[in-house]
Design goal:
The structure is a homodimer of 217-residue chains. By secondary structure, chain A is an all-alpha fold. Chain A has 2 domains: 46 residues, Arc Repressor Mutant, subunit A; 156 residues, Orthogonal Bundle (Tetracycline Repressor, domain 2). Chain A has 12 helices and no strands. In chain A, helix 2 packs across helix 3 and helix 5 runs antiparallel to helix 7. The structure holds a DNA duplex (30 and 30 nucleotides).
Chain lengths: 217, 217
Amino acid sequence: MAGGTEEQIRRAAVHLFATRGFHATGIRQLAEAVGINSSTLYHYMGTKEDLLFAITQDSFRRLIDAADRLSPDLNPQVRLCGLVYLHVWSHATHPEETAVVDNELRSLDGDRLAQAVELRDRYEGLWASVIADGCASGTFAVQDPRIARIALLQMCSGVAGWYSASGKTSLRDLTTTYAQMALSLLSCGRDYRTIERLLDDLDLQPVVAAAWPESAI
Amino acid sequence: MAGGTEEQIRRAAVHLFATRGFHATGIRQLAEAVGINSSTLYHYMGTKEDLLFAITQDSFRRLIDAADRLSPDLNPQVRLCGLVYLHVWSHATHPEETAVVDNELRSLDGDRLAQAVELRDRYEGLWASVIADGCASGTFAVQDPRIARIALLQMCSGVAGWYSASGKTSLRDLTTTYAQMALSLLSCGRDYRTIERLLDDLDLQPVVAAAWPESAI
DNA sequence: GATCCTCGATCGATCGATCGATTGGGCTGG
DNA sequence: CCAGCCCAATCGATCGATCGATCGAGGATC
């Protein structure tokens, strides 16, 4: 349960960056959260910004790895549900990490910001192609595919800000509800039970377990 | 065009808080943006946090004032389109101000955070009642009204982060597109032209002009 | 002369980061 | 077995820089 010091620092940083913000988090505050001297921090890490960069890179890569595992043979409707599932699942189970990625990218300097943006663009490209495929095949119908993509991603990312696993909504209900809303937004409404079955058949648990191994308890 | 010094400070603060973040914005940086000494700032304002608080309060009040002007006699479908219009319009025309409100509330201390949260809750309550009315009358059909409300607000707020008036999407197209997506998400899909006409008939320009007088050029 | 406005100087506090000193467990050569 | 050594790990002290904020000394305007 304890984990190495390096991992403790990482966890504390994710928590503090997510709740207070990167610039509002002091190096001493971080050290105190871990229970070590602020000097000792630098034995395990580089600069504070190195830490932020590592967090964002890891988070992005895991999400992209998971999304890349979705078979391109599936029809757009199913692929979109898969993307929504993975996005919502990751934001619900790792709310602080994803919040840091979504809100603190601007604290990175030029080079690293560019690297992060490149990963983000790659990820959003997966969404764009699914939506484009669906529009081409007549499964989806939207006024502007680009705006629809932005709206969908924004709405799914919001999960990190409010969802609590201790609430009355289960992770299964959450992901299904968002998948249903996403399809509806694309003028491709489906019955709730239908989507529930669709996601069951997709069976993304292996994908999730591969991309977030520490969550497979 | 110039405006008083106080207003220049306000504008510069909105810009810096939105782009760099509240904690990443220094008092000297703010003064430099205005073209005055950092000491002179304090002749026009209180603390840096006073400034942030004033910005958030003003922004919230204007949005609530506008939303309150929507007649409660209208049916849920029209009222929802009105809420979407005002929300998207304000986020598209005042992206920095709304971004500060959406992202920097956590930088307020206890008392002021509570006041801001109270206003936010009041505003979101307007959305909640419209959605509830629509669900009760059968106009809307969603699995979870609360989640739908959160998703809609999140998706509409995202406009502040990407929309550019110089792009190919007009403000009119933008608001109509979002209203259509919102209705679709609520299983109440309508034709694009229908929503366009609906918003034209609503004619929210007077509402907008009353809540954001400086935009009425 | 009184009021408004501005600025340089400066306050104490805190920032991120580095330094040298110390500790202690583990490895090596004999 | 043990003396000698190494090195990861930790900490107190401190670096220069910057933070938000204050003060009093001047102009400027009426």
